[in-house]
Amino acid sequence: MTPRADIRVWTVSETKAGTLTQCLGVADFLHPNPYVVTVRKPFAWWKPQAYLRDLLVGRQPDLIVSCGGIAQSHTLAIAGLCRRRPLTVHLAGLKPEYEDRYDLAFVSRHDWTPEREAKPHIHPMIGVPHRVHPDEMEARREKARARFAPGGGRIATVLVGGPNKAYLYDEPTIGRLVETIRELAGDGWTVLVSTSRRSPPALQERLFAIGDERIVIWDRQGENPFRDYLAAADALLVTKDSVTMTCEALATGRPVYGFDLAHRPHGPYLEKFERFHADMSQTLGLTRRFEGALEPYDYSPPNESRRVAAMVSARLEAGRRVVSPA
């Protein structure tokens, strides 16, 4: 797909980086420079919003792509203020009061419910959209491998998140992860470790203390090598706390293994994550549970960002609405 400069695309997301990444994952295919709106609280008419000035004096959007529960009220308020109602698209499940007010919505399979089958404007998707794509990975691969393993050999990339409402990084979990990385290096892998802002300091300290030249850890200084870490990999190990990291890893087309973490007490967040991982591994055959070895296997990497963008583009071309204006 070629981004179009003849349409105006806005994204509306929460301040959480993941919601913006999803929006841009789709919007990047549709416009070379989407206008980005991030919000912290639900829309209220009496609260000034920085984007309202741009809405009134600038070119109004033809398309709004949103993600996050807080973004929904803002999106529909913006759409209602436009002279010509833009196409509204949400990535994730919608709140009941907004479900029939959006033009399109794309809901991850692990959040899908049977009653959505009766709503033609709501579609299932694999995982979540993101900004890592298979063609980019292939284009980067040769230079990335020469950078991190100039002598050749196998490269394992380890993507580490942090504790959330489903999983814990307790001491046994941290110890098991550090030992796994050490063992992979001992088995001859060059191990590239990417941590996140959520990663516990104790984990990062223990990783840097390993002192093995086969283990390369980004120190969070300078340019983030994340994309080269992905492109160079022969296999990937991803902690289970991030849906986005798992989906980004799958863009490589290389084996992706999920690393088990300690569970928080049973609840909806844990159920949601476990449904996602069961769907990706058992139903779709895209990932596998890590049980001590990174073995090769084949799959066709999904590209949901491109697929969703193509569906949105088709609706824009058709110029139709399936729901009444808000």
From TrEMBL:
SUPFAM superfamilies according to UniProt: UDP-Glycosyltransferase/glycogen phosphorylase (SSF53756)
Pfam families with a match to the protein in the record: Mito_fiss_Elm1
Organism of derivation: Jiella pacifica
Descriptive protein name: Nucleoside-diphosphate sugar epimerase
Domain of life per record: Bacteria
